[in-house]
Amino acid sequence: MGRVVALANQKGGVGKTTTAVNLGAALAEQGRRVLLVDMDPQGGLAVGLGYNPYELEPTVYNLLLEEGMKPRDVIMATSVAGMDLVPSNIDLSAAELVLVSEVAREQALLRSLSPARDEYDFILLDCPPSLGLLTVNALTAADGVMVPVACEFYALRGLALLTRTITKVRERLNPGLKVDGVLATMFDGRTLHGREVLERLKEAFPGELFESVVPRTVRFQEAPVTGKPILEYAPDSPGAEAYRQVAREFLERVDGGKFRNP
Ligand code: ADP
Ligand code: MG
I need a labelling partner for 31 at 20 to 30 A (CA). Which of 21, 102, 156, 184 fits? Predict the structure, then answer.
């Protein structure tokens, strides 16, 4: 059975979508079968992989809410061999409202995704920038959660709330949920500020912070415009190499079973 990993942080612009695309591509490069699932109504995964989300139908919205929909009905191929996509678009923003009145509303994704678990080694869930029902669905469906954090002044603010949400989901909905790690992104080692934030993250998340750090580079902004992961757009760039390292470290952690609940 594949491992389901939620990429969560209620702050926007911290690198969740970029991490989903590029960690996914790096895992696929290493021969793993990867499925990316977009849980953000902004549809960033489809955009980053060269699709126009507004033209897509069916999407994860249909998978979550329509009786009889199977993952295979909504899975699309991507330019990366071994990496598939369940896209989303603005339709998904309605799902949050519809789900509220459903029985077992937090388990909708867990239920609808389960047939896909045998087909992939890793299923990465790209969460929206909120702690609402879509993120709770992702945390309930996940085996592990990975938290991308941008190396900037406000990075640590809000992480306590995210940690409390993870703890609540573990207590009430998903006892097996593990923290697969905290990933520092957008690191600018030339500035004292960047280095200080990284030190703070090391203190705050000993053992959880990935040793690999993703540098801040304009390549990450350019890549989505081409509809490709940075691993394809600029395969030899430091950014691409960083995500390969993250993938190696991630595999060591989850395969080595080092990560247990606190
Ligand atoms: P989120 O999904 O958390 O909202 P994104 O992955 O969409 O964040 O990233 C927000 C913006 O920052 C995007 O324009 C993206 O291209 C850019 N970005 C992501 N990671 C980096 C990085 N390491 N260096 C520079 N820009 C980055
Ligand atoms: Mg995003």
Answer: 184
Place of tokens 């290493």: 30
Give me ligand 2 centre to Cα 8, in Å: 9
- Number of H helices and number of E strands within the chain? 12, 7
Helices 219-226 and 238-255: crossing angle, nearest 10°? 90
Whole-Å CA distances, 87 to 21, 22, 47, 54: 12, 16, 9, 10
Q: Tokens for 209? A: 């912070």
174 with 142: CB under 8 angstroms?
Answer: yes
Please state the atom number of ligand 1 nearest to the C-alpha of residue 214: 23
Ligand 1 centre from 69 Cα, in Å? Answer: 32
CB-based contact 185:152 (threshold 8 Å): no
Q: Which tokens go with 123?
A: 């299923």
Number of Cα atoms under 13 Å in the Cβ half of residue 58: 15
The DSSP secondary-structure symbol of 15 reads: S
pLDDT single digits (tens) 170-201: 999 999 999 999 999 999 999 999 999 999 99
- Any idea which ligand is nearest the CA of 184? 1
Closest CA to 32 of 23, 41, 40: 23
Residue 113 tokens read as: 């995704």
Residue type for position 197: V
pLDDT in tens, 91-146: 999 999 999 898 899 999 999 999 999 999 999 999 999 999 999 999 999 999 99
